[in-house]
Amino acid sequence: MSQKLIIKNQLKCPERFDWKFGKKLIKYLDPSVDISMIDNFWCWREFIREFKYLQSAVEKYLMNATTGEPTYALFMLLYNDYINEFKLQNKLSDDCNGVDNIWDCNYCNINAQEFNEYLIQFEFKRKKIETFIKNCKIGNPTNIVVKMVKHCNSSVEWAQDVIENCKIGDPVISAVNLAILCKCSNLYEWAENIITGSKIGNTSRAAYLMTIYCYSSEKWASEIILNSKNKNKLQDAYNLYYTKYKSNKWAKKFIAMFKYEYPDEYQRIMNNRNICFYKRWINHINKNNHFKLKE
Length: 295
Prior knowledge:
Elements: H1 19-29, H2 44-50, H3 55-63, H4 70-89, H5 112-135, H6 145-152, H7 156-165, H8 171-182, H9 185-197, H10 203-213, H11 218-227, H12 233-243, H13 248-261, H14 263-270, H15 277-285
């Protein structure tokens, strides 16, 4: 069977590594497989349970992907295969289902030698996938680092390093999620620095989330949102105004800058016959005085 497995990416990579692509990939790797059993509820866990002998080939394909989000699929293989399969094979307690890390489980009586052997295998594969995520040049590789820390025992330091050096995707949102996970003041400050210095990602959304979950100041967030180059920052400004920072002066300045930076989007909102939240907010802020943007 191994001679039939084709590793080179002759099968075009998708943007989404979902069950539809999984069907094609399994058939591509082994033409003799009957894929009629594969349904639209399948995730990578089901694929690997049914086609265990193809796991190595699937992983190699994902590590040579040229589009999409291969890091997420690799994480699913790592987490679901090693943790869930280990539970099933050893008939562990059903109470394990709510445990993030298998080594945190207090319900199971696991044979120490078997567990150590399992950990060696797990650590080897985890480090291999960590290296791939760190060097990945497509998609949004930082999207998965927090899940790796939470579920696969990857270190926080590794996650910080990946986020700090990532040049693609949305590392600022990952920085926020890591700070939320760790609940540590040092990580809060670190995340703020990442957001402040970032030239990519959804910095306005990240700043707003920091005020909600990480005790960041509204003043700091308002400046990040004001200077953000994200077209969707109107939503974050609106949310910040009504939940945290009700400054009419700042709101007027933001609206004037948004109108200047994104005139088409501004006109689309204002010409909307329906009175949407943003239009109502803009009208409310501009009701009495208009902030004049100096050109």
